[in-house]
Records
---
Amino acid sequence: MQTAGLFISFEGIDGAGKSTHITGLAEAFRAQGRAVVLTREPGGTALAEKLRDLVLNDAMDPLCEALLMFAARRDHLQQVIEPALARGEVVLCDRFTDATFAYQGAGRGFDLAVLRQLEQWVQASTEPGARLRQPDLTVWFDLPPAVAAQRLAGARLPDRFESQPQAFFERVAAGYGARMQQDPGRFARVPSDRPMEQVWLAVRQAFEQRGWLGAEVTK
Ligand code: TMP
């Protein structure tokens, strides 16, 4: 019997602390015998990684930024995400389209109607009448921007997004809130201004509640 594929995305402002939990989830799924694809956006294919390098480092206008994000996403969906889901695998994707609505839409103030149109084109299914491809679950690591700023201070050389002022991240965080309001059933909001172990418990719980992971065995 083929197990259904699972598409999970992870979101939050820069510094929200997604990485450790994504790795932990990959281990938990593998321990249950599931094949896991760990990937990220922008990126995840050779072409999309080249676009990532451009979009994180080169000056460009907001439309160009949005188009490159969706161009990278299209290649990623076709080359990596859709084939993995068709094989029944678990795709753990560090950021997806909610990031575009939060960063380019809310953060940069770019036209949300254009983003919605791009979302329709890029995430359309090849099967007639099928719904848009969206994650089965989006884990939103919700961290106050002031706390994120403290965490990021003195870290490696910031890219075009990390170097934005706190006010930008206030808008991005509000953008994530707005996306969640539009589709609350798809989101698990995890308050992340707390010790890492507590954040991990909340993340696990979101998967256990949906029957996707068994209860954690504590040693
Ligand atoms: P990362 O540092 O979490 O890998 O994400 C790369 C940066 O790209 C991060 O600052 C958020 C930004 N980003 C967007 O602005 N729009 C998008 O659609 C995506 C996927 C990421």
---
Amino acid sequence: MESQLKYRKRMDAIFKNVRSRGYKFLMEHESKEVLKIYTIPTTRERLAVDANDAIKSANTIGYPVVLKICSPRIVHKSDIGGVIIGIHTPKEVKEAYRKIIKNMSAKAPEAKILGILVQEEVPKGFEVIVGAVRDPQFGPVVMFGLGGVFVEVLKDVSFRLAPLTKNEAFKMIKETKGFKILEGLRGEKPADLNALTGVITKVGEIITDLPEVMEIDINPLIVFNKGLVAVDARIIIKDRL
Ligand code: ADP
Ligand code: MG
């Protein structure tokens, strides 16, 4: 109970901070703080304030790393050259840092940059999307889909009202065409569906528990044969309660 109160205070502080900036969305690292409170695994990462700081962070995290722009203005980071993956050496960290800053001054010159997020590069796995919205008519709704063309082109997604059980979450996964892929094609090892149903139910809990949350998006969530990790996350909150 006491720790729940502590978490509640931490989340209130994040939400207040976001509103004071005049924006409605939490940056990736802030969104992941909320996920962590709900025990959803997230990437190891650190916010660096200059290139040398980024090298220090990368050395601590371990290579390969990914560098990502961290700005309260920028929602879709890779659209404007704000994500560089496959960085293997301190020299590459420095180059990537400079490249991202350069891309920002060209494509989003007005955006205030808080720093660059240095993050572990996650190995290949099944890329899925888990999200939730607060529908004005139906209330909180959870969404699941396989990433990439499955969501973008085929609209292969399923929905459920939140909160939901792990059993219902499993049915959601099974309803998508992507399910066959997650079960493992041609001798490939299957995705950890137990861990995945866990994340879907937890996202349902987050939007049910926190009335200020309007939208959650984990895109991608990378699922392995054992375990998974949220690689990118975004939470949108109400202007005010
Ligand atoms: P965006 O704001 O553009 O959605 P993301 O953080 O999702 O930015 O990064 C874009 C893509 O880069 C992801 O969809 C994923 O394929 C890849 N990526 C990002 N971070 C990592 C990581 N830590 N490890 C492996 N791949 C990553
Ligand atoms: Mg993303």
